[in-house]
User: Which sequence fits this backbone?
């Protein structure tokens, strides 16, 4: 999704902007651009496609001495990914970059055009710069023009604006899209839409709150809150751990992240398992006081992990649990009662739809918990309580290790609540904890499995579609397997509950319909097997993933034999991730940055 960087200082401005954009590249984008203001003169460059194209265009552009600059990676929402639609957008004497969506842009654009203003792009963003310049003509000063502009915008935004006549200053505004500013030892200022571009440059950062706007120059940091009151910046230390990842010999970040799952799950478990109970130091047991129900809300892969939680919470913690897709929940006037704990799940902590549901729950007075991978993200800052998944930086757009750690956290949380509510006896909790300790082993990628899947993948490059099927908690895993395949292979895939196939989809069965069947030995094995037999009888091509070989399958991905279905779950998860990866590689796709997708979806 779109990314923003900004810089005020004496270092090599162009390089700082391009490096910053590189750090945001993994989020997904289709064009990029920068604008630099030096000695009251602008230079701006834009390019469609990857950042190398922008680097090529700017190779003769040298920035020395003091300058201010802004940069942007764009993920198209309004208008195609063209150079004209790429940011920064210019007026007569100003440039703007923007993340988010200006919902009333069409009305504003119509008004501005009626006044003779000419638009170059199809974007919503361009209205900001023209509106600002219009306001500037009558305002007392630049800040007044900027704040008037902000007050006329509806929607979500993080904005940086630079303008001639203020060539030491960047104007900023944040509402609903993330943005922060950092300072380095020389007092240079760096802006970004997430903290990764600032790591290595800044020791301290200030995360803007919704409604914040103002300006920052070489010597001043001026911030106003949403009521227009001046406020002091609140700087906190920025981690200097640039996990930002080399591929360490792997072909893709996604592959590296699949292989990292064993280590990151060890991190997820660290300090949280005792022999008899789950320890979440970050939770106050009072969070569950008066709670009779849990409502989970998330998007995409995080939704799938949330769906696994509904099985685990009801089975073990005996607490009524439901889950909803955040974008649906937002607009359906849901009933929210105060005996419900509202839990949002997000790798990034910035997904606009999920964040909004969290705001809704807070406004309704519900207790809130976020399960998140990014500390200091918007959701972490907003929720009453937080459990970090500790998956480390995930760069592949297709989420893998984040999902693994989310499910791990949910399994632990189900035991934590089971203990609080006395719904499982001590022996059973101890048994589950012992199983949890085996997960790092079950997600270790074996050469044998990877090689087998590599070979097998060549048979699954065509056909008229895939069904991933499973029962119980293996149904959300099937949904996740299908999502992974869709995202990086661009082949049609659906996740389905095995028992539902006969209620419609079985009509599609023929040799060109590929069914990936999850057959855990320890959960409803015979029932799931019968469902596969029904498909096999209709000549569908079947690949089973199981510890037990099944003679009706055309292909078989064996997993180890375990004592419990949760361990089978985690090894099958790895098999599904590898299958998508290898199919995508054979199809020649961009595994880490699949078309049309963004890592962090900060627009609704
Ligand atoms: O950062 P979040 O977990 O909130 O993101 C939610 C989805 O956008 C995300 O899981 C998406 O579905 C991934 N590309 C899945 O691989």
Assistant:
């Amino acid at each position: 999704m779109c990314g923003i960087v900004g810089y005020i200082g004496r270092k090599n401005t162009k390089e700082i902007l391009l490096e910053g954009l590189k750090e945001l590249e993994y989020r997904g984008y289709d064009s990029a651009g920068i604008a630099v203001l030096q000695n009251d003169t602008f230079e701006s460059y834009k390019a469609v496609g990857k950042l190398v194209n922008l680097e090529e265009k700017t190779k003769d552009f040298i920035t020395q001495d003091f300058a201010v600059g802004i940069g942007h990676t764009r993920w198209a929402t309004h208008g195609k990914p063209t150079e004209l639609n790429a940011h920064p957008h210019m007026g007569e004497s100003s440039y703007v970059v923007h993340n988010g969506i200006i919902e009333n842009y069409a009305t504003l654009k119509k008004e501005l055009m009626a006044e003779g203003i000419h638009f170059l792009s199809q974007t919503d963003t361009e209205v900001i710069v023209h509106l600002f310049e219009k306001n500037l003509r009558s305002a007392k000063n630049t800040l007044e023009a900027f704040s008037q502009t902000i007050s006329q915008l509806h929607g979500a935004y993080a904005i940086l604006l630079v303008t001639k006549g203020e060539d030491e200053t960047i104007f900023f505004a944040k509402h609903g899209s993330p943005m922060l500013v950092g300072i380095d030892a020389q007092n240079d200022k760096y802006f970004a839409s997430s903290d990764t571009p600032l790591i290595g440059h800044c020791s301290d950062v200030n995360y803007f709150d919704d409604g914040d706007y103002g300006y920052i120059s070489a010597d001043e940091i001026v911030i106003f809150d949403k009521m227009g009151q001046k406020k002091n910046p609140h700087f906190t230390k920025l981690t200097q751990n640039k996990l930002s990842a080399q591929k360490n010999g792997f072909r893709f970040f996604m592959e590296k992240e699949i292989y990292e799952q064993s280590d990151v799950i060890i991190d997820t478990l660290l300090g949280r398992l005792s022999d008899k109970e789950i320890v979440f130091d970050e939770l106050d047991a009072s969070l569950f006081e008066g709670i009779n129900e849990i409502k989970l809300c998330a998007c995409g892969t995080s939704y799938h992990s949330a769906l696994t939680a509904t099985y685990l919470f009801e089975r073990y913690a005996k607490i009524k649990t439901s889950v909803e897709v955040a974008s649906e929940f937002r607009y359906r006037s849901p009933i929210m009662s105060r005996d419900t704990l509202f839990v949002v799940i997000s790798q990034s902590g910035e997904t606009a739809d999920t964040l909004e549901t969290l705001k809704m729950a807070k406004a309704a007075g519900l207790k809130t918990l976020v399960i998140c991978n990014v500390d200091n993200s918007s959701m972490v800052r907003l929720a009453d309580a937080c459990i970090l998944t500790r998956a480390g930086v995930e760069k592949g757009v297709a989420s893998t290790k984040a999902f693994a750690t989310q499910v791990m956290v949910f399994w632990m949380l189900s035991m934590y609540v089971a203990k609080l509510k006395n719904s499982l006896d001590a022996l059973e909790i101890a048994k589950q904890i012992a199983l949890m300790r085996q997960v790092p082993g079950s997600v270790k990628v074996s050469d044998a499995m990877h090689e087998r899947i590599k070979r097998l993948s060549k048979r699954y490059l065509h056909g008229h579609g895939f069904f991933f099927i499973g029962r119980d908690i293996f149904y959300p895993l099937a949904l996740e397997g299908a999502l992974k395949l869709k995202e990086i292979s661009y082949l049609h895939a659906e996740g389905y509950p095995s028992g539902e196939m006969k209620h419609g989809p079985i009509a599609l069965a023929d040799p060109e319909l590929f069914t990936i069947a999850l057959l855990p030995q320890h959960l409803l094995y015979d029932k799931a097997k019968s469902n596969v037999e029904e498909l096999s009888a209709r000549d569908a091509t079947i690949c089973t993933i199981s510890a037990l070989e099944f003679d009706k399958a055309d292909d078989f991905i064996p997993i180890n034999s375990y004592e419990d279905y949760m361990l089978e779950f985690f090894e099958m998860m790895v098999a599904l991730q590898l299958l998508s990866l290898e199919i995508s590689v054979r199809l020649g796709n961009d595994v880490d940055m699949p078309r049309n997708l963004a890592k962090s979806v900060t627009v609704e």
Q: What stands out?
A: The radius of gyration is 26 Å. The pocket of 5-amino-5-deoxy-1-O-phosphono-D-mannitol is lined by residues 299-302, 346-348, 351, 354, 397-399, 487, 597, 600-601 (CB under 6 Å). The chain is about 35% helix and 25% strand. The longest strand covers residues 94-102.
